[in-house]
């Protein structure tokens, strides 16, 4: 069964107190169905306490927003997968375009991070997506497929099963521009087809592929109604319960 997911990405926002308050509201009011999952991608300072707060709701989880590819060592300011796993973190966002752009994370580095996370039993939410320039030039599908192939396709089928994909066109992140439901569906279909060609139909059909890029309460239903869109990775609109709760509810939108 393919799980539908509303994942929030708080990025570098929320004081400790604000984040805990927001998480409390979401945990209290969200009502994800049995085939649905809510993931709060919060800063490191919130992880442990939100894990504790969400104990009674099995389908609300937290994600870290990054991890280092090395197991341990002299990497001042970084965090390792074993540190995350020692406090019960089960998910990590990897390959967000902001990390690729500002922190120069290449597909090779991301491949190492993915393997490290999986080895500590942490599931990657792996982000991919093209710039506006690439889309305008018309090779966005090839570009995104290449990101997947380079970072994920040398995994064993057993490991790949644990990956969640987030397609996030860079031109739609934090810009208020959203991919149309048709543009999102086209890319998600291509991503699933590529997974099928490499890992087979069953794995492809069970992989959750999220859309990210200015998902808001007023467009979530239409996006999530697309056959290959299994929910969203949500930045700005995950920062208040007023905007994130309706997006969580939109997961139940029937498919077109
Ligand atoms: C994101 O941070 O991954 C994102 C999609 O942001 P926003 O929803 O604000 O566009």
Molecular structure report:
With 256 residues, this protein is an alpha/beta fold. It has a single domain (4-252), classed as Aldolase class I (TIM Barrel), CATH 3.20.20.70. The chain has twelve helices and eight strands. The chain has helices spanning 16-29, 44-53, 81-86, 97-102, 107-119, 132-137, 140-152, 157-160, 181-199, 201-206, 220-224, 241-249, and strands spanning 4-9, 36-41, 60-64, 91-94, 123-128, 164-167, 209-212, 231-234. It has an eight-stranded parallel β-barrel, surrounded by five helices. Helix 1 (16-29) links the parallel strand 1 and strand 2. Helix 1 runs parallel beside helix 2 (44-53), helix 5 crosses helix 7 and helix 7 packs across helix 9. It is globular and about 45 Å long. The chain starts with a strand and ends in a 7-residue tail after the last helix. The structure holds phosphoenolpyruvate (PEP). Phosphoenolpyruvate binds next to strand 8.
């Amino acid at each position: 069964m393919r799980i539908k997911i509303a994942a929030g990405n708080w990025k570098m926002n929320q004081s400790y107190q604000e984040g805990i308050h927001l998480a409390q509201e979401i945990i209290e009011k969200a009502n994800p169905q049995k085939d649905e999952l809510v993931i709060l991608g919060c800063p490191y300072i919130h992880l442990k306490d939100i894990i504790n707060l969400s104990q009674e709701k099995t389908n609300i989880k937290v994600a870290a927003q990054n991890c280092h590819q090395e197991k341990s060592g002299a990497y001042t300011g970084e965090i390792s997968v074993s540190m995350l796993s020692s406090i019960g973190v089960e998910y990590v966002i990897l390959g967000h375009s902001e990390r690729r752009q500002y922190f120069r994370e290449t597909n090779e580095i991301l491949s190492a991070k993915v393997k490290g996370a999986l080895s500590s039993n942490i599931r990657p939410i792996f982000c991919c997506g093209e710039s506006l320039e690439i889309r305008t030039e018309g090779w966005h599908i090839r570009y995104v497929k290449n990101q997947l192939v380079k970072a994920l396709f040398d995994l064993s089928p057993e490991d790949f099963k644990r990956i969640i994909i987030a397609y996030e066109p860079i031109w739609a992140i934090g810009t208020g521009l959203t991919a149309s439901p048709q543009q999102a569906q086209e890319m998600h279909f291509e991503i699933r087809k590529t997974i099928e060609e490499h890992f087979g139909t069953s794995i492809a059909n069970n992989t959750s592929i999220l859309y990210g890029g200015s998902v808001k309460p007023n467009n979530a239903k239409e996006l999530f109604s697309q056959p290959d869109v299994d929910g969203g990775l949500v930045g700005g609109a995950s920062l208040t319960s007023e905007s994130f709760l309706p997006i969580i509810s939109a997961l139940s939108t029937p498919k077109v």
